[in-house]
Amino acid sequence: MILFLIIAAIALATALLVVLNPNPVRSALFLVVNLFCIAGLYLLLNAYFLSAVQVIVYTGAIMVLFLFVIMLLNLGTPDRSLNKLKAQAPLAVLGGLILAGTLVWAVTKGAPPIALPTEPMVGLDTLGSPQGIGKTLYDPKKPWLFPFEVTSILLLIAVIGSVVLARRSYGEEASKS
Amino acid sequence: MSILTLLILVPALAALIVALAPQGATRRIACLGALLTFIASALLLRGMPGPDGFFEDSIQRSDWLPALRIQFHVGVDIVSTLMIVLTALLSVAAIVMPFKISAGKEKLYFGSLLLLEATLIGAFSSLNLVLFYVFFEACLIPVWFLAGSFGGEKATKALMKFFLYTVIGSLVMLSSILWLGFHFQSFSYIDIQHGLVKEPLLGQLGLWLMLGFAVAFAVKTPLFPFHSWQPETYAACPTAGVVLVSGAMAKLGTYGFWRFCIVLFPEASKQAAPLMIGLAVVGILYGAFVAAMQRDVKRLIAYSSISHLGYIVMGLFSGSTPAISGAILQMVNHGITVGGLFLVLGLIEEQTGTLKIRSLGGLWDRVPLLSRVFLILTLASVGLPLTNGFVGEFMILLGTFQNFPAAATLATTGVIWSAVYMLWMFQRVVYGPARSEQPLTDLKGTSQWVLGFFVVLVFALGIFPKTFLDLISPIAALAAPMENK
Amino acid sequence: MSEILESLQGLLAPLVIMVCGMLVLLLDLRRSAFAARKSLALACHIGLALAAIACLPALNVASLAGVKFPGSDTPVTQLFGAGMTMDGFSALLDLTLCLVAALVIGMSGRYLEDKRLAFGEFYALILFATSGAMVMTSALDLINLFVGLEVLSVALYILAGYARRELRSEESAVKYFLLGAFASGFLLYGIALVYGAVGLGAQRAGMQLVGGSYTNVMLITEVLRATMHTATPLATSPLFVVGITLILVGLGFKASLVPFHTYAPDVYEGAPAPVAAFMSAVAKIGAFAALARFLQPLAIVELQTPTIRHIIWGIALATMLLGNILAIRQVNLKRMLAFSSVAHAGYLLVGILASLTLRNNIAIDSVGFYLLAYSLMNVGAFAVIVWLGHSGEEEFTDIRRFAGLSKRNPAAAATLTILLFSLAGIPLTAGFLGKLYLFYAAVGAQLYWLAGLGLVISVIGVAYYLNLVVQMYFREPLDESNPEVRGGVAKNVAILCAILTLALGVLPSGILGPPSPREIDGPAPIVQPGLPSERVGGGAAPPGAPMMPR
Amino acid sequence: MELLPWIVPLLPLVGFLINALIGVRLGKPGAGLLATAMLWAAFACSLVLLGQVQAAPGKRLFSPEFVWFNADTLSVSFKLSIDTLTALMLLIITGVGALIHGYSMGYMSHEKNYSRYFAYLNLFVFFMLLLVMSSNLVGMFVGWEGVGLASYLLIGFWQEKKSATDAGKKAFIVNRIGDAALLIALFLIFRHFGTFEFYGEKGILTKAGIDTALGNGYGLVSTTVPILLFIGACGKSAQLPLHVWLADAMEGPTPVSALIHAATMVTAGVYLLCRTHELFLMAPGAMTLVAIVGLLTALVAASIGLAQNDIKKVLAYSTVSQLGLMFLACGSGAFGVAMFHVTTHAFFKALLFLGSGSVIHAMGGEQDMRKMGGLAKKLPITYATMFIGTLAISGIPLLSGFFSKDEILLNAFAGQAGNAFQWGLALLVSAMTAFYMWRMMAKTFSGEFRGTEEQEHHLHESPISMTAPLGILAVLSVFSGYLNPAALKAVAVDLPDTFGHFLGENAGESIAEVNHNTELMLVLASVAVAVGFSLFAWRKYKKATNGELLTEKQRQSGWYELAYQKWGFDELYNELFVRPGKQLATWLWRVADLRGVDGLVQGAGNMIGSLSNLLSRFQNGYVRSYALTMLVGVVLVILTSLLGRGR
Amino acid sequence: MSMADVPLSWYLILSALLFTTGVVGVLVKRNPIVIFMCVELMLNAVNLSLVAFGRYLGDAGGQMLSIFVMAVAAAEVAVGLGILIAIFRLRDNINVDETNTMRG
To answer: 10 Å Cβ neighbour count for C60?
Structure first.
C-alpha cells in the first residue's frame, strides 16, 4: 500500500518534470526514472517478466537511443522567442485538465472494488512468469500468436525505415545506370 | 430490345462515331444519326396505350443494378412520346441547319448535340426513377461543354452557376427518389405509382416528397425564382444548342412536374397548387416585363420563355382537365415556336454577326423570306389564334380560371405584355432602315426546307390541335381526382 | 498445430504479400539499377496477383458474417484463436488493396528513377503496408487491429518521408509520424479500457474465458448482450463507453475524420505523389474496415448507447462539410484531393452509421463498394499527376498549370475529367453509384437529415472538381508545351483507372452482386429480455463462440 | 349547298393565300384583280345567303361545323351562323370591301409591294367575315384577333417609316388590352354557361341558356360580363379610354383607313354589343356605362376634330365620335338604331375617306389641309362626291346620316335611361360634326391653292378605278337612309321601317316612342343645328382665304390648344403607363433580377468561399496546434459520450 | 499481503494521470524528440492500466497486450528518430514551430 503510494508519487512527479523542464536531456533522464517506477509497479502486480522487459527494453534500449539522438543532434534548450503559438500552452493545460478529470471520473466510477484472485506468490506458471507468458503466447486457442508474427514484420519495417531514412549517400548509388 | 433503347443508342453511337471520325465527315454522320432517330421516334406514335397509358410494345425492363433493384426500365405513354418526337425533331433541325462552325470545334459541337439528344430521350423514356435521374443529370454535361467551349472564358462563371444550380435541384430530388425506392422496395415508376394508389402518402410526408421533386423541375424549367442561370447560359450557348436546350431540355422540367408531381402525388400537388401557381403567375408577368427591356434578342427570348413556361406550369397544377391537356399541348408548341425562333436568330446572327437589338434592323426587304418566317414565329409566340400558340394558352387559361380565377385573370394580362415585348423586338430587329450595308443571303436550300417545316407545324398545330388532344386527353384525365374542387 | 495450419491457409492473402515483400528485399540486394526495377516490379505484381487469387474463394462468404452478429446465420470463420477472420467484406477490400498496390507500384517506377530514389525498399514497404491493411480488414481482435494498424502506419511514415532530398517530404513525414503516434496512444488507451470493462462485465455475467480474449469483437458482443438487462450493463459502463470512443478517435485519425483530419492535407501535399495516392486509398480502407467491424457490437444495444451514434452523426456531417468547404480554395491539386478525401471519408462514415441500424448487408456492402470506387478514382487522379510531371522540376500539381490542357494533352485531360466527374458523383461513373448506394442505405436507416444534407453538401464538391475541368477545357493555356514527359506506365495506370471507373459506373452488376434480402427496413430490435440468462447459461452460445459455462 | 356560308369567308382566304405565296408572279394588276374578284364573289354569295336567311326558319341558318379543340366538357368548333344581323354586316363588309379593293388598285398602283398589300387586305376581310359569322364566342374571338393582326400589318405597311410601324404596334397592343378583357369575359361565360355557342342547345343568347347560367350563379357576374365585353369593344372601336390608337392608325394607306378604320373593323365593337344585347339588357348598370362612355367619346373626339389640320386625322376623329354615338344608341337600348348608323356611316365615311384619299393622291401624299384649298375645280368628281358625303354625315335632312343620327338623338332623349341632358350633349356633338366637316370641305376645296408649285402642276383628277367607287358610295350614302326614315314621321310621312323590320329580334326591338309634338321638336332642333352650323362653317371658311379663322394669338388659347393636342391623352398615357412601365421593367431586370434573385445565388457561393478562407486559418501547418485540435476533439467526444450514455 | 488492498481504481487513476501528462506534454513541447518522449509516457500509462486490469481479472491478456505495445513502441522509436535525423540533415533544426511550409 505505502509502497504503491510512494512509487506512484515519484512516477507522477517525474512525469510532470519530463514535461515541465525545458532541457531535452533532463526530460529524457526524468523519463528513465519514471519508467523505472512503472517497472516497480509491474512487480507489485506480479508481472515479473514484464517488469524485467520494461527495464531492459525501455530503460536500456529505447531511452539510450533517445539520449543518443539528442546528443547527436546536440539540441539545446530552444529559445522562447521562437514560440509562435502563444495561446497553445494554456489551452493545452486546460484541455489536459478536463481530460484528466473525465478519465479519472470514468475509471473510478467504472472499476468496482473487487477482490484479487488468489494465486501462488512465485510459481512456475503464474501469469507473470516467463513460462506463463510463453504458454499463453503460443496457445492456439488464444489470438496472440498471429500478432506476434506480424510484429516481426513491423520490426523488419522499422529496420528498413531507419536504413532508408538515415543512410547518407543512398540516392547516388541507386541511380547509377 | 425496345425501340426506345435504339432511340437512345443511335444518337449516342453517332456521337461516338463523330468523335472518332475525320473532321470532314462529322456533319454528314451527325445528320444521318439525327435523321435516323427522328424517323424511328415517329414510329413511336403508332403505339397502343395499355391500361395505365404506357405503350406495351415500347416497354423494356432488364436488370441494371440488381443489388438496389435498379433496372434499365424504359417505356413511353403519349406525353413522353410527344416529348421524344419533339426532341428528335429539334435535334434534326439544329444539326441539319447549315450553321458555320468555327474550325476544329465540329466534333465537340455535333458530338454534344447528339449526346444531349440521347440523354434527353433517355430521360423522357425512363420508367425507373434512378435511371431517370441518371439521364436527367447526364444531359447537363453536353450542354455544359457546348456552352463552355463556344461561350468562351467569360461564360465560365455562368456555366458553373448553371451546373451547380441544376445539380442542387436534382440532388434534392434524389433524396425523394431514394425515400420512395426504399419505402416501396423498388425504383420502378409503375410499381411506385401502383403503390401510391394503394396507400397514398398523405399529409406532410407526401408534400415534402413532392416538393423534393418539384425543386429539381423548378430549376430545370425554370420556374420564377430559380431562373437566374438561364439567360446567361442561353447567351453562352451556340444558338443551335439553345434550340435543344430551350426547346427540349426545358420541357424536361415541365414533363417532370407532370409525371412525378401531378400523377404520383395528386393530393400533395393539390395542396401545393396555390404555391406553384403563384410562382408561375409571378414568373409569367416578371418574365414578360424583364424581357421587354433586354438589349439582346437571345436574352429576350430566354426571359420570354420563363413567361411561357409559367403558363404551362400553371396549367399543370390548375387541376382541371382542359388546362392540363392544354399545358401538355403547349409543351410541344413552345418547343416548336421557341426552337424555330432560335433557328431564325441563329441565321440572323450568322448573317449580321450580332444579336444586339441596337445594331439590327432593316431586314424586311433584304431577307424577305427569313423575315416572314420570323414574323410568323413571333406571332405564334404572341399566341395569335390559328397559330399553335393560341390553343394551348387558351385552354390553360380557361381551365385555370375555373379553379383559380384570380391567378388566371392576372395571367391573362400576359397576352398584353407578350405582345408588347415581342412586337417591339420585331419592330426594332426587322423593320426600319438597314443598319449596315453588308449583303445578306436569304433562306435557301436546307434552311428553307427546315424552317418551312416549322411554319407548317405552327399552323398545323394551330388549326388541327384536335389530333393531338384526342391522344392526350385520356392521359390528362389521370389528374381527374383534382377535378372535384 | 493443425488448426494453425488451417488458420494459415484461411488467411493466405496477407501472408503471401508479406513473404513477397521479403523476397523483394532479397532480390533487391543484387542491385543493378534499371534492370532490377522491372524485375522487382514484376515480382511484386506476381505476389499481389497470387494474394488476390487467394482472396477469391472468400468473396462469396456472406459478407460480414461475424460482424452482422447476431443477425446473419452463416457461421464466422475464426482463424488464429478467433483473432482473425476472412469473409466477403474483407475479401473485397483485400482485392481492392491488391489492386491499389499494383497500380501504385506501376505508376511509381519511373517517378522513383527521376527522383533518384531506391525502389527495392519502396516496393517492399508498399507491400508490407498493404499486408498491414489486410490484417486490419480481417481482424476480429483488437490486438490484431492494433498491430496491423501499426504495420501500415509505420510503413507509411517511412514512405511519406521517402523523398529524402525534399524538405516537404520530410516535413510531411514528421507531422504524420508525431500525430500518428499521438493518435495511436489514444487508440491504445481505448483498447485498454475496453479490455478492462469487458473483462469485468464478463466476470459479472459469470462467464469464464477459455479461448479468445476480452478484446475479441464477438466476445464483446456476447458480453454486451449478456449484461444488457442486468443492473450494470456493459453498454453504459463509463470504462466501456470511453474506451469505444477513444478507439473511434484512433481509427478516425487514420480515416482522416474531422477533427482528426488536420494532418491529411499537409502530408498528402508533401509526400511523393505515388505515396499520397497509396495512403489516401489504403489507410482509408484499413480504417473503415476496422470501424465497420468494431462498431458493430453497438448495433445490438443501440438504445443503450445512442450517444455514440449521435457523435458519429455529428462527425460525419462535420467531415463532409469541412472537407468540401476547405477544398474549394485550394490551388494545389494534391492538397485539393486531400481535402476531398476528407469529404469522402464523411460519406463513408454515413454508410458505417447506417450499418449500425440496418439489419442486412446493404450498408456494409455500400461502404465496401464505395471504398473500391473511391480508391480507383483517387489513385487515378494521382496517377495523372505523376503522368504529367517533368523529371527534375517539382510535381505537376498547381491547378493553374492545367489551363488549356485539353489542347496540349487531350488524353490526359479526358482521363482526368472522367475521374473528376466520378469524384463529383456525376451519373454513369462509379462515384455516382457509390454515393447512390451509400445514401440509399442511409435513407433505409432513416438518417433522412444526414442523407439530405450530405447530398446537398456534395454539390460543393461538384464545384471544385468542375472548376478543374473548366481550367482544362475552357481556359486558354499558359504555354503551348505538352507537359507529358514521364507518361509510360503512369499513363496506362491513369487510363486504366478511368476505364474501370466508367465500367463500374455503367455495368456495376458484377461487383454489386445479387439483390439483398427483402425484409430490411427499420432499426434492429433489442434482444428480448430473458435471452441474457440463457446466454449466461452459455448453452445457446453460437458455434465457435469462445465461451463456456463455468 | 349548306357549304355556302363557308364559301363566303374562304374566298378572301384563298385570295390571301394565292397572293401571299405567288402574288409577286401575278404582277401589278393581276394581284389586285384577283383580290377584288374574290370580294365581289363573296358579295354575290352574301346576297344569296341573304335570300336564304329570309327564307330560313327563325331567320337563322347554320353551317356544318368543324371541331377545333376539345377536352372533356370543353368543346370549341368553327361553326358559322347567319342571321339578318350577320347578313347585314356581310353585305357591308363584302360590298364596301369590294369597292375599296377596286379603289386600291388605282391608289396603290405605284406601290412596289402591291401583291402583299392585297394579300393583307384579303386576310383582313377573311377575319372580319369570321368575326361576324362565327356562331360562338371563340370563333368570333379568332376573327377579333385576326382583324387586329391585319390592321397591325396594314398600318405598318410602309415598314421603313418608324411612325408607321409604331402606329401599327400601338394599335395592336391597345387592342390587346381590350382582348384581354374579352378573354376574361369568355372564361366567365364558359364558367357559368358551360358553352361558347350563341344559339342552339343552351346557347348563351337563348332563354334556356341564360336560365341555366342564372342557376350557376351567373347573377353575381351578370354586370361584370357585359362590362368586360364592352371593354373589349372599346379596344376595337376606339372608345375612351382606348381610343388613342385610331388617329395614329392613319399612317396606313388611305383605302385601309377607309375599309378598316371607318367602315368595318371599328364597328366590330358595336356588332359585338348588338350580338350579345341579351346579356346587356340584363345589366342596366352596364348599359348606362356604355351610354356615358359613348357620349363622352363622341364629345371629346368631335372637339378634337375641330382643331385638326391633317385631313385624315379629322376624318379619324369624326369616326371615333360617330362610333361614340353608336355606343350611345346601344347604351340607350336602341341596338337596331346603332346598327342602322353603322350601315349609313359605313357608306358615307368610306366615301369621305376614299375622297380624301383621292385628294391626297392628287396632292402627292400631302395631307395637311393648310397646304390645300381650291381643289374643287381640279378634282370635280372627288369634290362632288365628298360634298354629298359631308352633307350626309352632318345630318342634312333627307340624306342617310340625317335619318340614322336623328334616331340616335331620339333615343338619347326618350330611350331606355335617356334624358334631355344626354340629348343636349348629343346635339352638341352633331353640331360640332357639322362644323368640322364643313371646315374640312372648305379648307380643302374652296379658296385658292396654298400648296407648292409642282404640287399645283401635278394636280389631276384620279383614275376611274378610284372615282367609280366614290360615285357608288355617294349614291348609297344618299339613299341608304330610307331603309328607316323614321324621322319623316314627324312631318307625317310614314314610310315603313324596313331596316328594323329586317333585323327583327337580332337587335332587341326597342325604338323609343314619344308623342308627335316632342318628336317634331327634336327633329326640328337637330335639323336646325345641322344646317345652321354647316352653313356657318362653310361661309366663314370660304371667306378666310388663308383657310384659317383664328389668329395665332387665339390659337394659343386654352380650349383650342387642348383640342389641338387631342386633350393630351397620348402624353398622359406616356406619363401614366409607358414611362413608369419601362422604369419598372428596367428596375425588375437591373435590380430585382440581377441583384436580387441572382444576387442570392451568387451570395450563397461567395459565402461558402469566405467560410472556406476563415476555416483555413486553423490549417496553419503547426504540428502542435493540429495536436491541440485533436485533443479538443477527443475531449468533446468523450464528454458527450459520457454525459449522454443511457441509464 | 500488504498490496492486496490497493484498489484497482488507484492504478487506473495513476495511469490516467500519467496519460494526461503525456498528452499535455505533446502539446506544449516544441522539440519533436521530447514530444515523442511524451508519447512514450502515454504508452507506458496504457501499459500500466493493462497490466493492472489483467492482474485483477486474473487474465494474461493484459500483459500480452502490453508486450505488443512495447514492441510497437520500439519500432516507432527507430523510425521516428530516423525521420528526425533525416530532416535534421536537410536543415540544421528540427523545431516543430518552424516546419510549416505547407498550410492553408
So the answer is: 11
Burial class of C530 by CB neighbour count within 10 A (0 to 12, 13 to 18, 19+): exposed
Give the E-state strand segments of C163-269 in sequence order: 208-209
Chains D and B touch (3+ CB pairs under 8 A): yes
Closest alpha carbon within chain C to B178: C440
Q: Please state, in angstroms and rounded to a whole number, the distance separating the CA atoms of residues D266 and D353.
A: 14
Is C182 an 8 Å CB contact of chain D?
yes
Q: CB-based contacts of D334: which residues, under 8 Å, 6+ apart?
A: D407, D408, D411, D415, D416, D510, D511, D512
Does the distance separating the beta carbons of A157 and E67 come in below 8 Å?
no
Q: Which three cell numbers stand for residue B284?
A: 409569367
Whether C167 contacts chain E with CB within 8 A: yes
**H helix or E strand, kind and range, residue B170:** helix B156-184
* Residue from the list C25, C117, C144 with its beta carbon closest to the beta carbon of A146: C144
- Say how far apart CA C340 and CA D406 lie, in whole Å: 91
Q: Where are the alpha helices (DSSP H) in A115-167?
A: 130-138, 145-166
Q: Subunits touching C (CB < 8 Å, at least 3 pairs)?
A: A, B, D, E
Q: Which of B196, B96, B135 is nearest to B5 (CA)?
A: B135
The continuous run of DSSP H or E covering B341 comes out as helix B321-352
Closest Cβ–Cβ partner in B153, B160, B185 for C466? B160
Q: What is the count of residue pairs from D and E with beta carbons less than 8 Å apart?
A: 31
Name the residue of chain B whose CA is nearest to D112's CA: B365
For residue C250, the tally of other CB atoms under 10 A from its CB is: 28
Per-residue DSSP letters for B59-75? Answer: -EEEEEEGGGTEEEEE-
Question: Which of D54, D53, D61 is CA-nearest to residue D79?
Answer: D61
Q: Min CA distance, D628 vs chain A (Å)?
A: 7
The alpha-carbon radius of gyration of chain C (Å, integer) is: 23
Dihedral of alpha carbons D75, D77, D83, D89, sign: positive
Q: How far apart are CA C34 and CA C43, in angstroms?
A: 15
**Whether D622 contacts chain E with CB within 8 A:** yes
* The residue to which cell 528526425 is assigned: E84
- Residue A175 and residue C165 in contact, taking contact as beta carbons nearer than 8 Å: no
Largest Cα separation within chain B, whole Å, is: 69
ipTM reported for the complex surpasses 0.85: yes
**CB spacing of C143 vs A144 below 8 angstroms:** yes
Q: Which helix (H) or strand (E) holds D70?
A: strand D66-71
Taking only the tens of pLDDT, chain B with its 485 residues reads 688 888 898 999 998 888 888 878 888 888 999 999 999 888 888 877 777 778 888 888 888 877 778 888 888 888 899 999 999 999 999 888 888 887 778 888 898 999 999 999 999 999 999 999 999 999 999 998 888 888 777 788 888 888 888 999 999 999 999 999 888 888 989 888 888 888 887 778 889 999 999 999 999 988 888 888 888 888 888 888 889 888 899 999 999 999 999 888 888 888 889 999 999 999 999 999 889 888 888 889 999 999 999 999 999 998 888 898 999 999 999 999 999 999 999 888 888 888 888 888 788 888 888 889 999 999 999 988 889 989 999 999 999 998 899 999 999 998 888 888 998 888 888 887 877 777 778 778 888 888 999 999 999 999 998 888 888 887 877 665 444 43
* Subunit contact E76:A46, Cβ cutoff 8 A: no
Asked if D391 and D438 touch (Cβ cutoff 8 Å), the reply is no
Asked whether at least 3 C-beta pairs link A and B within 8 Å, the reply is no
